[in-house]
Amino acid sequence: MIKTGLSCGLSVVEKESGFQSMNAVKAGAAVFLLVMIAINSPVQAQPITLHQDTVVTRDTAVQMSKLGQIAYVLGASVGFSLGDYIAFNVLKDRDYVYQPPRAFRIIEGMTQVAITYLLYHYCGLSSAISFNLMWWTWVDDFAYYAWGYTTNLFPWESSRESGLRFNEYTSAGWTPLGLLRPQGSAISKSTLLAQSAAGFSISMAILLW
User: Fold this and answer.
1) What's the DSSP call for residue 163?
2) Sign of torsion, CA 24 175 200 168?
């Protein structure tokens, strides 16, 4: 029992360490991509030469475009968290419960960068920023736990075992609030929920700007 307890404890520690390092790499890659996109994105003024009766139609099109951007960003976050939930639990070593193969983290990071680029290419820079802001403020992590709670695809990550049951977390050290605290510090669920709500609200404000 003591050996099992120690093994589980070491697994948890290594899980947290792996999460922190890989998420730091992913955050750095996402920031680098966004900076490069911003540097290479020309800002062009587009004068309005339409008649007054046509402006209404143009404004409606712009509004629909913003709604489309919101739909794409939310869809990307939902899809990314679902893919994370399924792939993490399918690929991880059953004998080493807390840690998936390192290749999974690399592919996950590449997927995030690819989604970021596609959102920028098809929806604009604001969509790419909003997607990563929600990820950085732990919106996608709560979505990951929500998938486990609602789908029950895996017995160890289900409605009974979902991470939503915890009152505090030590794996959010790469988030804005986590960076302001000593690494490994426990952050309450209510605090992380407030951070996620703020991140989501700011993301929507960016898209609607």
Assistant:
1) G
2) positive
Average pLDDT over residues 9-24: 46
- Written as one string, the DSSP assignment of the chain is -HHHHHHHHHHHHHHHHHHHHHHHHHHHHHHHHHHHHHHT-----------HHHHHHHHHHHHHHHHHHHHHHHHHHHHHHHHHHHHHHHHS-TTSTT---HHHHHHHHHHHHHHHHHHHHHH-HHHHHHHHHHHHTTHHHHHHHHHHHHH--BTTBSTTT-GGG-SEESS-TTSHHHHTS-TT--EEHHHHHHHHHHHHHHHHHHHH-
- Look over the chain and give the mean of its residue pLDDT values, rounded to a whole number: 78
Cβ atoms 77, 135 nearer than 8 A: yes
118 three-class SS: helix
* Calpha distance 136→175 (Å, rounded): 5
pLDDT per position as a tens digit, 122-146: 999 999 999 999 999 999 999 999 9
**pLDDT of 33 higher than 90:** no
The reported pTM is 0.73
pLDDT-based confidence at residue 209 (cuts at 50, 70, 90): confident
